[in-house]
Design a protein that fits this description.
Strand order of the largest sheet: 7-8-9-10-11
Radius of gyration: 20 Å
CATH topology of the largest domain: TIM Barrel
Number of strands: 14
CATH class of the largest domain: Alpha Beta
CATH architecture of the largest domain: Alpha-Beta Barrel
Length: 388
C-alpha cells in the first residue's frame, strides 16, 4: 500500500464572520489517499489572521513529497518532515503541517487494521472522555444563564475569558495592561457564576497570553476567591521566566501549552514546575504521534494534560483518541456551541452526550468528511488561490 494523493480542503464553517478583525474562522482538513482506496482524514486548522491559508499552502507543497511512500511508516514520515524544515525553525508552521498528515496516517492505519486509533495507541483507559466547554457571556446575567444551560447538558467544567476589555486585542500583545475596571468586571462575572453554580462546578479562566506579569497577578488575585481550577496563558508564550514570577506569587494553578509545539517546547515548562496543567494542541504540535508523547512526558511530572480543542471536528476526534489512552488526562476541550457545524462537516455526528465524548469501535478515527459541506463551505480565497 502506497500514498497516491494528498488533498487539502479549506472551509469557512461560520461563513465570512470575523471573530477577531481580519481573522475569518475556518478549518483546514487534509486527506491522504492510498493506492488501494483508503482515505485518511486529518486537520491542521489555524487561527487567527489567515493562518489557514499559510498552513494549507504548505500542506499542498509538502504533500507532493509523500506520493509513493508507505502510509504505515508514520514515525519515519513524521521525522523526515520535521527535520527537513530545521533551518526554518522546526516548530509552528511545519508542526501544524505534520499534524494534519499524521492524523490522516493514523486514520488510515486504523482502517487498514480494522481497529480504532485509540486501540492502536495502547488501548482504552476509560470508557469516555470528559469534556469542558465555553459558556461565554459579556455580563454576569448572560454568563450565569449560559452556564446553567451547560450544566443541564451534563458539563461539569466550563471555561471563561471574562476580560471583555481585552478581547479586541486577542493575541495582539503590545503592553500587556488591563484597566482596574476591566479586572473588576471580570471578577463580577466569575463571582456571579460561582454563586449561581455552587461549589462543585470547575471554572477555568483563559487570558490568551494578553497580560504582562503585574497585570496577570492582579487578574489572578481578583479571581482567586472564586476557587478557579486554572488560569490559562497569563502571559505570552515566549518567556519561561515570566511564568516563574507568577508561579511563585500565587497559589492558583497555571495552564499553558496551546502555543507550544512538540515535546521539546513542553520539556522545559514541565522541568521548571511552572504549570499545573498543560494543553497541547493535536493540530499544531505534531498530530496524534506527538500528543501521545507529550502526554507521556507530562505524566512523568504528574502533570495532567487537557488538549486544546478550539477548532474543527477532526481535531476533537484526534485529541479524543489520544485522551482515551493516557492516564494523566484532565479533560478535553470542546466548543459545544459549534456542535451543529461540527456535525455538518462530517459524515455522521460527533458522539458527544452528557458532557463527554463517547468513542466507539469504528476503525480509524471513526468518521469521514461530508463532501457537500466541504464544497459548499469552501473558503473562497483558498478556492481562488487553487484555481487562479
Amino acid at each position: 500500500m502506497r500514498i497516491s494523493d494528498v488533498r487539502v480542503h479549506v472551509v469557512t464553517p461560520l461563513g465570512h464572520i470575523d471573530l477577531v478583525e481580519g481573522s475569518r474562522l475556518g478549518w483546514v482538513f487534509v486527506e491522504v489517499e492510498t493506492d488501494d482506496g483508503l482515505i485518511g482524514v486529518g486537520e491542521c486548522s489555524n487561527w487567527p489572521r489567515q493562518g489557514n491559508h499559510i498552513v494549507a499552502r504548505t500542506v499542498d507543497a509538502v504533500g507532493r513529497q509523500l506520493i509513493g511512500r508507505d502510509p504505515a511508516a508514520i514515525e519515519a514520515i513524521w521525522n523526515d518532515l520535521y527535520r527537513a524544515s530545521t533551518y526554518l525553525g522546526s516548530r509552528g508552521l511545519i508542526t501544524a503541517v505534520i499534524s494534519g498528515i499524521d492524523i490522516a496516517l493514523w486514520d488510515i492505519k486504523g482502517q487498514a487494521l480494522g481497529r480504532p486509533v485509540w486501540d492502536l495507541l495502547g488501548g482504552a483507559l476509560r470508557r469516555e472522555v470528559p469534556l469542558y466547554t465555553h459558556p461565554g457571556g459579556g455580563d454576569p446575567d448572560e454568563a450565569v444563564a449560559n452556564t446553567r444551560e451547560l450544566i443541564d447538558q451534563g458539563f461539569e467544567a466550563v471555561k471563561f475569558d471574562p476580560f471583555i476589555e481585552m478581547l479586541p486585542r486577542f493575541t495582539s500583545y503590545l503592553d500587556g495592561r488591563i484597566s482596574r475596571r476591566g479586572v473588576r468586571e471580570a471578577a463580577e462575572i466569575i463571582a456571579a457564576v460561582r454563586d449561581a453554580a455552587g461549589p462543585d462546578l470547575e471554572i477555568l479562566i483563559d487570558a490568551h497570553g494578553n497580560f504582562d506579569v503585574p497585570s496577570a497577578l492582579r487578574a489572578i488575585r481578583a479571581l482567586e476567591p472564586f476557587d478557579i481550577t486554572w488560569f490559562e496563558e497569563p502571559v505570552p508564550p515566549e518567556s519561561l521566566d515570566a511564568l516563574r514570577q507568577i508561579r511563585t506569587q500565587t497559589s492558583v494553578d497555571l495552564c499553558v501549552g496551546e502555543r507550544l509545539h512538540t515535546r521539546w517546547d513542553f520539556a522545559p515548562v514541565l522541568a521548571a514546575g511552572v504549570a499545573g496543567y498543560v494543553m497541547p494542541d493535536v493540530c499544531w504540535t505534531g498530530g496524534i504521534s506527538e500528543l501521545k508523547k507529550i502526554a507521556t512526558l507530562a505524566e512523568a511530572y504528574y502533570v495532567p494534560i487537557s488538549p486544546h480543542n478550539a477548532l474543527g471536528p477532526i481535531q476533537i476526534l484526534a485529541g479524543g483518541h489520544v485522551a482515551m489512552t493516557v492516564p494523566n488526562l484532565y479533560r478535553l476541550e470542546i466548543n459545544s456551541k459549534w456542535l451543529h457545524q461540527y456535525d455538518a462537516a462530517i459524515a455522521g455526528n460527533l458522539p458527544v452526550r452528557d458532557g463527554a465524548l463517547h468513542l466507539g469501535d469504528t476503525p480509524g478515527l471513526g468518521i469521514g468528511l461530508d463532501y457537500d459541506f466541504v464544497s459548499n463551505q469552501a473558503d473562497n480565497d483558498w478556492r481562488d488561490f487553487r484555481h487562479g
